[in-house]
Amino acid sequence: MDFDFTAAQQRRYDEILSATRDQLNDAPSESNGHFTRQQWKTAASLGLTGLCLPSEHGGGGLGALDTALSLEAFGRGCRDTGLVFAVCAHLLACAVPVRDFASGGVRDRLVSGMASGEVIAANAMTEDDAGSDVGRLAVTARQVDGGYVLNGEKSFASNAPAADVIVTYAVTDPRAGFLGVTAFAVRRDLPGVDVGEPMAKMGLSSCPAARVSFQDCRVPAAYRLGEEGQGGAVFQHSMTWERACLLAAYLGVMEHQLAACVDHARRRRQFGRPIGEFQAVSHRVAAMKQRLESSRLLLYRGCWLLDNDRDHLAAISLAKLAVSEAAVANSLDAVQVFGGAGYLSANDVERQLRDAVPTTIFSGTSEIQREIIAREVGL
Amino acid sequence: MSADEISEKIGSYIRERFLDGDLNRELEETSPLLEWGVLNSMNTALLLMFIRDELGVAVPPKGINAGNFRDIRSITQMVIELGRPQQATVAGRD
To answer: What is the pLDDT of residues A100-159, one digit of tens each?
Structure first.
């Protein structure tokens, strides 16, 4: 057992950390706070939009663990966690299923475009009445000559307002439950695709999310991902990568946050001494460190199991659960360490808390992760 | 292992794990598991692990389809066929 990074992993981590700090933190956002194409291009130029995509298509060719380490550096270096989330949604929830389930020229074009960042992808799975339960989807895809006609509405599609392609899921056989769902990559410019106004939300504000509706939208069969009825498996596969690798970005956020708390606790003086000398503060910081390190080990192990084609379902759920709940708990602790300053919007810790809250919801809620773990142990 | 034994093992697992252990609940070899909602995404993932660990058969992604998971009989047939050298037929069945 070896807990060290390899030299290549350390070099990649350091390069991404340094580059994202230098190039992404002072870039202007859109007036509505959403990421700009220029910010996206910068992230793409650092290889972040294609980390785990095949190198022959311009990607980094990385496995899950190396992708996670890279995203951890991204999350640590870039203060705009919304942008980090947007890149992760594009890469893990969209590009990964295209990489693994699309075929022929469509796969080549989409993967190359997604790796280079020329193509921005949105993930449209959730519906008003279907979140974790894939079997309740209402959007339908009717087979017609040469393709499918999609009808219905998705909600909460991350990246949709900025997207060029939308990865989505629709019912092709209503009698077959979740095995009657089929996945598609839908070009945004197709007739019948309508993207709604960006939704106002608590955190991850720079990543726009919107409703996506399909009205008699004709999608060529070549844009189907996998076989008909394989959408549930396609989605599970993308969620596996998202749970394993997206959450790694929050390890980076927590690392950055912890360093800020330590620095603040050393400099901030009350009653004649640094507040870090008060056990109430130092033990809170110690708890933050413990959550960070323990969740990191779970995540690295989950990624390692995935890379080595070993049973990883519960291990990745454990990692997702641990990192997300650590992110929320550590953010609350960080606000407390910073006191009144932590409550102010001008400070990072206030935004970090708002950005942490959705971690226990996206990619499968904490309740779903606990359910998977409980069933894995035999309950 | 015979087809009857495989079918019995799969049926017992489904009753015990997904039907609250109600061994008397009506579950035939041809009961439509997907239509009834017995096999949702989570239960299917667990069943796949059971098939791999207890029956020694790894189901490839292409094998996870409505044809193979329609009922206990189709799952049994899939396990038998995947246990043979020629795995392509069942994996692609729809």
So the answer is: 999 999 999 999 999 999 999 999 999 998 876 777 899 999 999 999 999 999 999 999
Instruction: Give the pLDDT of residue B94.
Output: 44
Per-residue b/e over A136-159, b at no fewer than 16 CB within 10 Å? ebebbbeeeeebbbbbbbbbbbbb
Q: Which residue of chain B is at minimal alpha-carbon distance from A176?
A: B34
Taking CB atoms and an 8 Å limit, are A179 and B49 in contact across chains?
no
**Is the same domain home to A132 and A116?**
no
CATH number of the domain that residue A53 is part of: 1.10.540.10
Q: Are residues A145 and A28 in the same domain?
A: no
Distance CA A150, CA A172 (A): 10
For residues A229 and B62, what is the distance between their CA atoms, to the nearest angstrom? 10
Provide the sign of the torsion angle of the four alpha carbons A363, A367, A368, A369, taken in this order: positive
Candidate list A228, A242, A255, A350, residue with the active-site label: A242
Do A211 and A341 reside in the same domain of the chain?
Answer: no
Say if CB A78 and CB A351 are below 8 A apart: no
Same-domain check for residues A112 and A127: no
| Catalytic residue check, A350 | no
Average pLDDT over residues A19-30: 86
Q: CB distance B37–A237 less than 8 Å?
A: no
Domains of chain B and CATH, by start: 3-91 (1.10.1200.10)
Q: Does B60 touch chain A (CB under 8 A)?
A: no
Q: Could you tell me the two tokens for A31?
A: 């007036």
Model confidence pLDDT, tens digit, residues B11-66: 999 998 888 766 556 789 999 999 888 998 888 888 998 998 899 999 987 788 88
Is the CB of A175 less than 8 angstroms away from the CB of B34?
yes
Count how many domains chain A has: 3
β A273-274/A269-270 pair status: antiparallel
User: Would you state the structure tokens that stand for residue B76, as one six-digit string?
Assistant: 């049994």
Q: Is B35 on the interface with A (CB under 8 A)?
A: yes
The Cα of A216 is separated from the nearest Cα of chain B by a number of Å equal to 25
ipTM, two decimals: 0.77
| Pairing verdict, β A209-220 and A193-195 | antiparallel
Residues A213 and A240 both lie in one domain: no
Token digits for B67? 């044809």
Phi, psi for residue A181 in degrees, rounded to 5: -105, 140
**Domain range holding A246?**
233-376
Question: Do A371 and A238 have their domain in common?
Answer: yes
